[in-house]
Amino acid sequence: MTEANGTSVSIQDLSLNFGAVSVLQTLNLDVAEGEFIVLLGPSGCGKSTLLNCIAGLLDISEGRIFIKGKNVTWEEPKDRGIGMVFQSYALYPQMTVEKNLSFGLRVAGVARDEIAKRIARAAEILQIEPLLQRKPAALSGGQRQRVAIGRALVRDVDVFLFDEPLSNLDAKLRAELRVEIKLLHRKLQNTMIYVTHDQIEAMTLADRIAVMRGGIIQQLDAPQTIYNRPVNRFVAGFLGSPAMNFLDGQVEAGPVFKTDGVSVPLDRYVFDGTERPTGACVLGIRPEHIAFGDAAKSMPFSASGSVEIVEPMGSDTLVWTKLGGRNLSFRVEAERTLRPGDPVQIGFDPVRASLFDAATGNRL
Amino acid sequence: MSDQAVTLPASAGAVANRLEASGPRGPKPRHVFSRRNIFLYGTLFVVAVYYLLPLYVMVVTSLKGMPEIRLGNIFSPPLEITFEPWVKAWSTACTGLNCDGLSRGFWNSVRITVPSVLLSIAIASVNGYALANWRFKGADTFFVILIVGAFIPYQIMIYPIVIILREVGLYGSLAGLVIVHSIFGMPILTLLFRNYFSSMPEELFRAARVDGAGFWGIFLRIMAPMSLPIFVVAIILQVTGIWNDFLFGVVYTRPDTYPMTVQLNNIVNSVQGVKEYNVNMAATILTGLVPLIVYFISGKLFVRGIAAGAVKG
Amino acid sequence: MSKSERPNPLFRNLNAKIASIPMILTASVIFVGGTVWTVFYSFTNSKLLPRLNFVGLDQYYRLWATPRWLISIENLLIYGAISLVFSLVIGFLLAALLDQKIRFEDTFRTIFLYPFALSFIVTGLVWQWLLNPDFGIQHVVRDLGWTSFTFDPLYNSSIVIYGISIAALWQGTGLIMCLMLAGLRGIDEDIWKAARVDGIPMWKTYLFIVIPMMRPVFITTLVIIASGIVKVYDLVVAQTSGGPGIASEVPAKYVYDYMFFAQNLGQGFAASTMMLLSVVIVIVPWAYLEFGGKKRV
Ligand SMILES: Nc1ncnc2c1ncn2[C@@H]1O[C@H](COP(=O)(O)OP(=O)(O)OP(=O)(O)O)[C@@H](O)[C@H]1O
Ligand SMILES: [Mg+2]
Fold first, then answer.
1. Do residue B155 and residue C114 have CB atoms under 8 angstroms apart?
2. Which CATH architecture has domain C67-291?
3. What ipTM was estimated for this complex?
4. What residues of chain C lie within 8 A of the CB of B295, using their CB?
5. Could you report the per-residue pLDDT of C219-239, keeping only the tens digit for each?
6. Residue A38 — left, alpha, or beta (φ > 0 → left; ψ -120 to 50 → alpha)?
7. pLDDT tens, B226-241?
8. How many beta carbons lie within 10 A of that of residue A237, not counting itself?
């Protein structure tokens, strides 16, 4: 079906049920050749399930899956041209690293010197040459994960599937390997589908992020778009740390956003549609988009309040105040010494805010 | 405490000094002969003697001559050690028409146990693996029947099996008994292997599938090599279980293919002739020797085996 | 559009199905088929060979009118009650003793458990010897001067089943102790610490906190003991062959003797059906308690 636009993986109307439980519902996803797609979502939303469907490890209930234009819906995992990296590494404990890497090739009956060549290449790329004769138990977490990536690498596949490959590692190693995976992608230019619930991984690695919830892709877009223009309240709240502030209120003609004694002019806000909605809605604004002190005064919207709580985070400080009776957090430089009770002036530009329908949660 | 006091401010130091003057200090003294310990070890010791006594009596009886047994006390050590009862039990004691001792039963038991253990474990391990990793429709139904079947008294299935074995011409043969042991070992072993394979990380199995290994490839090259302990547990379970079996031996074999337990019972409980208690005890020890050796060698694994076999029955 | 065919569902997972053939055959032919067959033929008057001559419940009427069967049932009940109570109590006490962080724990455990490695035949014969009135314990005590001492359970019809139970307990309590010990070890250390901080005496901690927490272990153990009780056969054969007279007969032996010696298959089938029934009575409530409430297998 695929046009020759270089679609690498195409998922059409995919549904999957475990008995009566429907985990994925008529899901569609097209991944371009060489693209790095991140599936992001809370625990239990079906990310791993989707990945396992693509790999052929789960039998799907409905729909079709194409890889490189070939319908692989009923193919065995090994025939799909995929390599997979697992969260728990899934290294065969009784085999050395070298045997781990070559297992798939040996099963497929690849010639000995070809196996050696591919292992040498993978080992070089991942810098695991000194580890080849060790057993997995004698490796550190980071080294194990490299070997696991190597196992996908030697198979010379078109599509790499990663299922939370870094979540068993500590924060420092995670940051290191994140960079390595990015470099690897740049070098290999393979299609990669990467599952995580870590938004930093998602933001830094992805060409496009698919935010999932309850087996449905909520938004599929470039990281910046998802961050700045979330399609609904769930996506807005899920991405960003510290989380976006939400204020319940009304949109009134003008247009202007009103809540308990606060009114935010929305002239500069870019509405999704052409018509101007009115009624109950939620205004979302990220802490880092709130200006403070003198800078706030020049913003289209500004208000004054007092500091409630101060949370120093090292690089900067999160300050909580109240706006229209609701808690609101904003970021200030770490050097600023604010104390609870201090008066503050805050403000923001509504162009950076997001408005959501109160009932549906969709972006207005 | 005094170390701490040094670092305390002066006023607190004064208090600490006063506290330090008397009272316990350093490690709490441990009384080896406390009432608790005497009671504890005393009880355990008495119970241990009770458990060991039968073994002791068996051994000393088997080393005495008949005259000494008639006159003496079963607990007294032999005045004159003789190995004759052992030799007789092994090679000349009579059961029915055969007078070649327990050796016949021993070899029968070996020829029953070895293939039964291998066959039952082969069947159950592959089956447990299929149940754990390759679930197919209906598999669970049969599995539940299998497990429930383990609780059904054998007596109710004995006769239909006699008929089946007779139909295929294996009734009375060692091969028939091997099949019976494989059948009745299946519930517990399948459960054991299924639970073990289920507890292995699913991702490992998935990785192997992505690597292109199939049903047998994953079993032989990934799962089985990782499962040596559970295979050992299964072997222990089966060797002792099959060696100790009596019922199936009586029902499904003939006098010349009787396993050791059946032969032992026939020797000891035969009504003809003079009772030779020393020979009986020697024969009894000989029969118990194989499982005892397995038990003492395997130690912790044996415990694990029976616990695994027993838990979630 | 695509060339790949949807595989025939029968051949999907074919290897797994092949590997399960022994299980499928055993479950359906032997366990279900065999049970149904025996129950079915228990309504016939089969003698030497199975015959389809239906006589209704005749075999059962005769069974319940046979003194030997009645004694068997009575023995089974006594033996069962003794086994259950004593092996649970002794097994738990031994486990609790071993759980006191004692030295030589492994040695003691090895000693308590070794009889379990022995067969019932061996166990029965040893205890037959120990309880032999002419040479065994009775003889030894009399030699010590107490000449009227009597301890001959295997030769006294009214207490023979207790004599058999002694041997059974010697053989089986080690297993129960091991299961209990595993259960005790599975209890969170912090429970003990909390009880100690609260100043609760040890025996109270066991009675009111630990034992209730070990409910699953007790249930499992109970099921194991119970299913062993119904099967008791070899022990009796080795120790007394059912004697003196028919005083120590048990149902399993009744079944075997009627099927293979008395050439009265119908009686054997009826008796084994009754055994099945007794197991069902024990198992069904347990299965209901274990699996009934929650929906999982
Ligand atoms: N074998 C199964 N049977 C029934 N339900 C299942 C099965 N496997 C997964 N599920 C359910 O499917 C849903 C999605 O699971 P999945 O593993 O895909 O989540 P996930 O997004 O990967 O979560 P996580 O971030 O925790 O890994 C969950 O609600 C889970 O309970
Ligand atoms: Mg997951």
1. no
2. Orthogonal Bundle (1.10)
3. 0.87
4. 113-114, 117
5. 888 888 887 888 889 999 999
6. beta
7. 898 889 888 988 998 8
8. 15
